[in-house]
Amino acid sequence: xxTGSGAVHGEAMVETALGSEVTxxxxxxxxxxxxxxxxxxxxxxxxxxxxRCSKKLEHIKANPRVAVSLSDPVGNKGLTDRATIQGDARxxxxxxxxxxxxxxxxxxxxxxxxxxDFLKARVALPLFFERxxxxxxxxxxxxxxxxxxxxxxxxxxxxxxxxx
Length: 164
Description:
Layout: H1 5-16, E1 20-25, E2 31-36, E3 39-40, E4 45-50, H2 54-62, E5 65-70, E6 82-92, H3 99-111, H4 115-120, E7 131-144, E8 154-157, H5 160-163
Antiparallel strand pairs: 1-2, 1-5, 3-4, 4-7, 5-6, 6-7, 7-8
C-alpha cells in the first residue's frame, strides 16, 4: 500500500472498519457515495457488491478514481481517527458465482463471522451470492489523528513507480 505514518494508521483503520463510505464519480461528473465494507489484503482494499447493484459498478468502470472514507467511530470499533484513502478501482467480475470466494471470503469471514450463516442459506439467497469484487489500489492517504478535521491531515502519497 502506501508508506508513512498516516498510511500506517489508514491501513489499521481499513483492517478494523466494518463500514466505509466510498465516493465514485457518476457519468454526469457528480460524486455519489455508497456504504461498503472494506477488506484489506496487505496491498489493496477489496470490497464487494451484489451484481444486482450494477450502477456503482458501472460508475467505477467509467471512472476508476474513488475515495474511501473511514469516519464513523461505531463502524470503526470506537476509533475516533479519520482517514480518506484515494485510489484507482477496478471491477473483477469474471465469475460472479465463485470468483469472489477466492478473492475475499477469508478476509470477509475474519471481519464478519456471521457470513458463514449466510453461506449455509445460499440456496435461499442465490442473488446475494452473485458478487463482483471491487479492487482499489491506494494512491494517497489523508489521515486525521483523533478525528480532528480542523487540522491539516497527514498526507501520504504512493511511490511514483506505484502511482504510475
